[in-house]
Amino acid sequence: MTRSGGRRTSAPSAGAYPGYVLQNVYAWLRRHPWQADSALAVVLLALSADQVPAGPANVVFAAIMVNVLLAATVIPRRRYPVAAFAAAAAIGAAQVAFGLQVGASAPAVALQPSATDLAIVVLLYTLAACRPRRISITGLTICLLGSAIAIARWTPAHTAHPGTPLFAAVIGLGGLALLAWVLGDSVAYRYRHAYYA
User: Fold this and answer.
1) Is residue 117 predicted with pLDDT exceeding 80?
2) Is the pLDDT of residue 26 over 70?
3) Is the Cβ–Cβ distance between 85 and 136 less than 8 Å?
4) CA pair distance 175, 178, nearest whole angstrom
5) What is the pTM (predicted TM-score) of this model?
6) Are 62 and 37 in contact (CB under 8 A)?
7) What are residue 36's DSSP bridge partners?
8) Phi first, then psi: what are they for 105, rounded to 5°?
9) Mind listing the pLDDT tens digit for each residue in 119-131?
């Protein structure tokens, strides 16, 4: 039993301990949004660590910098959701335009898409949770169009039998964007409902 703020609190029982830890972690994340989003940026960057293209040192450095910039867009996402999403979407558009080439090597190898592109999905969620639907639907449309163009420029989509890989890409890219928007919009709906209540 410990004393906290003049009150006596007892330690959680063994069965309730995981829930107690999760509550403490969630409370810390809410109190420290900048640190939490910085940690998220590091995780996103780490996911693409083994996807850096091989090549000359300048190409490797440029690819790392693209991933760093993309991951860094999640850090200001709570304060500037529209600007953060716009910056990430611009990087994603450059990756689709110059990092993918049907049947040939990409014009800009450093702009090849990587797992760090999940930052765009995180930012779409934030956009849907923090901004009006007219803005978040615009973000969703950008993500779905970008996904369609990326799949169209993806070399496996142009093989003789693209069936399964093409279907997986459609579900993976389009489905993920739609899921992020729905989850963010449901959070916004709960906040709006609580506000009007």
Assistant:
1) yes
2) no
3) no
4) 5
5) 0.78
6) no
7) none
8) -70, 150
9) 999 999 999 999 9
